[in-house]
Write a structure and sequence with these properties.
The chain is 30% helix and 25% strand. By secondary structure, it is α/β, with parallel strands linked by helices. The protein has one domain: Rossmann fold, CATH 3.40.50. It has a seven-stranded mixed sheet with strand order 3-2-1-4-5-7-6, sandwiched between helices. Helix 1 packs parallel to helix 3. The radius of gyration is 16 Å and the shape is globular. The model has no long low-confidence stretch (mean pLDDT 96). It comes from Umbelopsis vinacea. Keywords: Methyltransferase, Nucleus, S-adenosyl-L-methionine, Transferase.
């Protein structure tokens, strides 16, 4: 069993500015751990997390892949999250490079077809569209209409980022119409299916696993 990353360097003041790991985070960790043999056999060169928050997911993935020399990189538009992600990596002995940017902005074309493991726990809460702008903690949850606006804006880039052997893990909730998201990914030429799901209170959380068709 891979331990949850040590976040003792972060406190309640930090979590006023960045997303604190919760049930959705841990479901994503469980999906990665469930696939640990597959991920290690992949021998990934580059792993990318979009919207890294505290850095918990990428740090966990880096620990899972040890002693792999995979390059761990994250993005987050929130400057507090960028700082926290690097600090979490250091605390747990994982080297992480963080790009302070919105989603994939600035990564293409340089990282085209280069990402072997892609993770995204997106802002999925149903909110007014106006709430998805900004660069503070609100962008970690505000998803706009159906909680899908940020998700839908990101999906077209998956084909550009993912390597031929790459795997994409996307967290969704039932409000996001996950069956529709799976269908959109399949229509875009991917294998996509729900690989793990769990109830968190009244909210159903799901992980969609995506690979290229061979």
């Amino acid at each position: 069993m891979i331990p949850t990353p040590d976040l003792s360097h972060l406190n309640s003041k930090d979590f006023r500015n960045i997303y604190e790991p919760a049930e959705d985070t841990f479901l994503l960790l469980d999906a990665l751990e469930q696939d640990q043999d597959e991920l290690r056999a992949l021998h990934p060169s580059i792993c990318l997390e979009l919207g890294s928050g505290s850095g918990c997911v990428t740090t966990f993935l880096g620990s899972l892949l040890k002693p792999s020399l995979a390059y761990m990189v994250t993005t987050d538009i929130n400057p507090h999250a960028a700082i926290a992600t690097m600090a979490t990596g250091r605390k747990n002995g994982i080297s992480i490079d963080t790009v302070e940017t919105s989603l994939v902005q600035g990564l293409l074309p340089r990282m085209r077809h280069s990402i072997d493991v892609l993770c995204f726990n997106p802002p999925y809460a149903v909110t007014p569209s106006s709430e998805i702008a900004g660069n503070g903690i609100e962008v970690s949850w505000a998803g706009g209409i159906d909680g899908r606006e940020v998700i839908d804006a990101t999906l077209p880039f998956v084909k550009e980022l993912l390597s031929e052997k790459g795997i994409f893990y996307l967290l969704l909730v039932s409000d996001n119409k996950p069956d529709e998201v799976v269908r959109l990914l399949q229509e875009d030429g991917f294998n996509a299916h729900i690989c793990l799901q769990r109830l968190a209170g009244r909210e159903k959380q799901l992980i969609v696993k995506v690979t290229r068709r061979t």
